[in-house]
Amino acid sequence: MANNNGGPWGGGGGNRGGGNDDDRRPGRRPGQEGPQIPEIDEIMKKGQEQLKVLMGGRSGGPRGPNGSGGGGEGPRLTRGTIGLGALIVVGLWAFSSFYTVKPEEQSVELFLGEFSSIGDSGLNFAPWPFVTYEVLPVTTQQTEDIGLGRTGSPGGDGLMLTTDENIIDIDFQVVWNIKNPADFLFNLRDGRQTVQAVSESAMREIVAGSELAPLLNRDRESTAQRAEELIQQTLD
User: Rounded to an integer, what distance in angstroms lies between the CA atom of residue 11 and that of residue 3?
Assistant: First the structure.
């Protein structure tokens, strides 16, 4: 009996495949029909790259001619940035810690508010904020006027009483400088007022033990010398 598969009515197998004719078309592969769906791996890869960019890392994209990442670079702290910041901090600290003292000056250094040392002329180092300093003009001659002759103030500080009960108006000038900057800074509240008060008190003591006539004539130089010694003794 002859096989009817090649007959004009077609083979019986043609009704089994349900559309298998498409699989026999040349140049077509399964999966190429309709729009393409992105691969899951590609989506995850792009998400990881975006996360790296947001967290400050480099993206995995191709690098440009200058070596930079194609996906950009977010803000981040590098060793160079940290080193530059540390260098700036050290520079500011050194600027606050080094100071210069002129030849006619001396400095008093204080460690946490307590006397530490005396700084001479030139460049000195006081590590801030633990050590502070005060600069004083130690060799500069300063003057204080007692009486009316130079100040012009009607204070009456030159009026003094002698031992023979005469009133004398004395005008004199005291020239002084700082002998010990630490003592001057810590032991005197106001150096100028202290010198004025001590000088006036010393002169009153000398005048109170002298008569009027010798003070006006022969005792002028001796009175000035005694006043200098008494003022120096009191201030020391």
Answer: 9
Contact 223, 216 (CB under 8 A): no
Judge contact between 100 and 73, C-beta under 8 A. Answer: no
CATH of 142-235, one of 3.30.9, 3.30.479, 2.40.50, 2.60.40: 3.30.479
Paired strand residues for 173: 145
User: Domain-by-domain residue ranges, the chain?
Assistant: 80-137, 142-235
Packing angle of the helix pair 191-208, 220-235 (nearest 10 deg): 130
* Mean pLDDT value across residues 109-134: 93
Q: Over the stretch 54-111, which tens digit does the pLDDT of each residue have?
A: 555 544 444 545 544 444 454 567 888 888 899 999 999 999 999 999 999 999 999 9
